[in-house]
Amino acid sequence: MSKNIASQSKDYASWYTDVVIKAGLADYGPVKGTMVIKPYGFALWELIKDSFDQMIKETGHENAYFPLFIPKSFLAKEADHVEGFAKECAVVTHTRLKSDSDKGIIVDPDSRLEEEVIVRPTSETIIWSMYKKWIQSYRDLPLLINQWANVVRWEMRTRLFLRTTEFLWQEGHTAHETYEQAEEETLLILELYRKLAEDFLAMPVHTGLKSESEKFAGAEFTYCIEAMMRDKRALQAGTSHNLGQNFAKAFDVKFQTKDNVEEYVYATSWGVSTRLVGGVIMTHGDEKGLRLPPKIAPFQVVVIPIFRNENDKSTIQEYTRPIIDDLITENVRVHEDWRKESPGFKFNEWEMRGAPIRLEIGLRDIENNCAIVARRDNNEKKSIAKNMLTGEIISLLSDIQSNLFNQALQFRDENTFRVDNYDDFKIITKETGGFIRCGWDGTKETEQAIKDETKATIRVIPFDENPKKLVCVYTGKPAKHEVIFAKAY
RNA sequence: CGGGGUGUGGCGCAGUCCGGUUAGCGCACCUGCUUUGGGAGCAGGGGGUCGGGAGUUCGAAUCUCUCCACCCCGACCA
């Protein structure tokens, strides 16, 4: 157990906050609910971002940027959409401040805007207002645009990375000729999200459909990836929406088909956010702090030199230089820690910060022509000959990557329960925690009743569902779907 | 928005009940020396409108009033 952070098993919430702050990922901003993403945390986000950016570019998407400010009236054009976001919109009503002898600086009442402007909580409306200008013919389709941006949702309760007033994300907005093409796009992106989560973040996810009540405001269908955190709660890690013609109709976006018929465009939108960083922390972290999957770790290898004096220091520098150069040549992200702190202090600190591999090099190793390699995922530590180091480290990194995934998968499986009666359901939600796989009669009423009584919600109707022969866990009627219930973030 | 709590160097706290020296402790920070293979030691040093305002008093971190901020727990959310 670490000296500086709360115990994960005893106080999960404090553990999480401690790790985020003390590992240097983020800090609180001065406005309630805002956060500063510090360099180490931002490097982590950038690696996630770059991985996904490459995936969408490979599948024909292009990046663009739309404005932060949206006319208030735009939001109202799609009924469900406005309903979903109205309660959490930041609104710009004035454009000037002025100094006041009593109160210092005040909002200048003369600067009130005629049409108030909202800060985007998401960009469907402004993007579709533009798509109307850009789309006339089937030749303009599909239109596959993504943007990396910040959005603002004025939340009541916030938590670093998981729910902040302002957060960073990507939002893809595509336009298609047919419903089928939109559906295909929605599922393609969901698959990329699965890949991002599982292959890069080493975070196993369930893929599937959201229930009617959990879907995005304005969507026909919402698909999602859903992960289990180490406190056994669920985290929605990404969503992909088939918007049908809802926004096309709201913004009057029509195109001419090959047959010269006018038709509304079919749309999708999809997003993942900095919440993924929270997911990584809560999927892999342990009592010592973070454990970062090598593919997204800002520093895959941290070199800790062990020296007594300036003389030792230069000897070690000389010995270490080619080792590091070799790793860098192989595209390994290396960090050297030459600070004055003691080696023990650095060991603990880099363990807390989740560096996958620590490379210890002292005079003793130079004598033996080797170095000590310690892995964060399972605490193994061994001496490796100098000429074997690069190869060994590269294979270790991929080993750590898959080990973290397997550990997380095993944890999820151990905490997933198949249940066929409501008594067991209640016991698990109340005492055990975890995912519950069970039958559901498909009604809103049942879903709501279960939520009210147990706080568990339908996280996902998984693609691999098999509702035949199942009964609804609540009503006992034949199940329409097999679903996963859990308490969620 | 309801319930609870906390505001004192950068961080964490003591002191507040019962007013009275120069507001104290730990961590962090700076300097020097000795250390360095699992969170180093010693010595010296810097840093405070005690959340803001008003009041009571010879005297307020401490008592009164008031405002503000933040945190935790509940209803909504990527």
Protein model, in words:
- The chain is of the alpha+beta class.
- It folds into 3 domains: about 20-285, BirA Bifunctional Protein, domain 2; about 300-400, Anticodon-binding domain (Rossmann fold), CATH 3.40.50.800; about 415-485, Translation Initiation Factor IF3 (2-Layer Sandwich).
- The two termini are about 25 Å apart.
- The strands form 6 sheets. An 11-stranded mixed sheet has the order 3-9-10-16-13-12-11-24-25-23-22, with helices on both faces. A 5-stranded mixed sheet has the order 18-17-19-20-21, with helices on both faces.
- It is about 35% helix and about 30% strand.
- The mean pLDDT is about 95.
- The protein is built from 14 helices and 25 strands.
- Helix 2 packs across helix 6.
- The protein binds one RNA strand of 78 nucleotides through strand 13, strand 16, helix 10 and helix 11.
Characteristic terms for this protein:
single chain, 489 residues, alpha+beta, BirA Bifunctional Protein, domain 2, Rossmann fold, Translation Initiation Factor IF3, 3 domains, 11-stranded mixed sheet, 5-stranded mixed sheet, 36% helix, globular, RNA-binding
- Kindly report how far apart the N and C termini lie: 25 Å
β-strand number: 25
Q: What is the fold named in CATH at topology level of the largest domain?
A: BirA Bifunctional Protein, domain 2
Mean pLDDT figure: 93
CATH architecture of the largest domain: 2-Layer Sandwich
Radius of gyration: 26 Å
Name the shape in a single word.
Answer: globular
Please state roughly what percent of the residues sit in beta strands, choosing from under 5%, 5-15%, 15-25%, 25-35%, 35-45% or over 45%. 25-35%
| CATH class category of the largest domain | Alpha Beta
Q: What's the story with the biggest beta sheet?
A: 11 strands, mixed
Low-confidence stretches: none
What structural class should be given to the helix and strand makeup? alpha+beta
The CATH homologous superfamily of the largest domain corresponds to: Bira Bifunctional Protein, Domain 2
What is the strand arrangement across the widest sheet? 3-9-10-16-13-12-11-24-25-23-22
The overall number of domains is 3
Percent helix, as a range, is 25-40%
Continuous helix count: 14
